[in-house]
User: What shape does this take?
Amino acid sequence: MPCLNADILYLFFDSANMHRWNDHLRPVDLTEIDKQAHKAMISWVLASYEEAAGNHVDWTRLIEHGMFSFIQRAVLTDLKPQVFHRIVAERRGQVADYVISEFDRLVPDADPALRSRFREYLYDEPRTKEDAVLRAAHYLATRWEFNLIYDSNRSIYGIDRTREEIDEQINQHLDLVGMKDAMSPGSGTFSLIDLFGQLRFQQRWARTPRIPKTSVLGHSLMVANMMYLHDCDISADDRSIYNDYYTGLFHDLPEVLTKDVITPIKVNVDGLAALLEDFEHDLIESTIMPLIDDAWKDRFRFLVYDPFSDEEHPEYGIRRGSDVKACDLFAAYMEAFISVRYGVSSSALREGCQGIRDKLVEKGKGIDAMALVDRLDKMRIRLF
Assistant: This one.
């Protein structure tokens, strides 16, 4: 079984049904997949600071351990952070036994090498620099959520203690180069992290009733994880893994500045697609680039400009943009298909399913998209 298979993708996607802070008043819905996507983006920022300071970063480990922590969270479901961290700390072996057994049940034909690395991650306490970056990113993303809900929950007992606990965890990672800027309101890094989080507010298929509702932020992580698993299948080199994963993660970032322009308008208004691309580039240069350290700007441009093109950069290596596009299409297909299976459908969703499926026949060969579609068709996906 390849690393990229429909069972593991559904495990990721199903975390859109996991609601965070659901014992608090929330101005917007907060889901686990969005939290994990925000965490992945923040970890890129912190790791980029480390690398610019001359510290070695194993980017492939950072990506994979981020994905493994996501799977662990998805399997253990909606535990309060205090409960989650305590049971993992005090019963690591038993918790690992449970998580791997559930993973085997949910992804019965997982790639053996991937499963072996996941098992090792679960049983051995992660102590690498990359794991420290991921933990710091986790708490920064949690603090971003907390700041969003705090004003609505000032009267709730224990809310200030929750703030203290989050700050205590963040303060344990002040040795990381980028943490001071990440925690300082008004800094470019603080603003960049906030900008990433705003992708939560933009709903996919916004004018179509759908379950579960998903955001541009969560969709971006689906594309990135698909690309990582695909690169594992083709034994891509580390530079390509970095390019493909982070291109997938940031491919929709311009939408935080422009919002989404639906495909029919782009296709049917002559010259609009090229005009929008130029406008997006102008907005990125004027709004996002000033927030990014000079040391990473050129590499970031390589990730976010023309993300669906195949390129071989003399310094950065290969980026498989056509496969990123295929993953983008398949993630969109899942969003429509699963809602229809859940029983919430519309002509827009049904037509969307068929239209995207037709495109995958043509553009999805690199990731064997039709095998993913066929497996998804056979899975027992339903609400009741």
About this structure: The mean pLDDT is 92. The first helix runs from residue 6 to 14. The CA atoms of residues 50 and 177 lie 6 Å apart. The two ends are 29 Å apart (CA to CA).
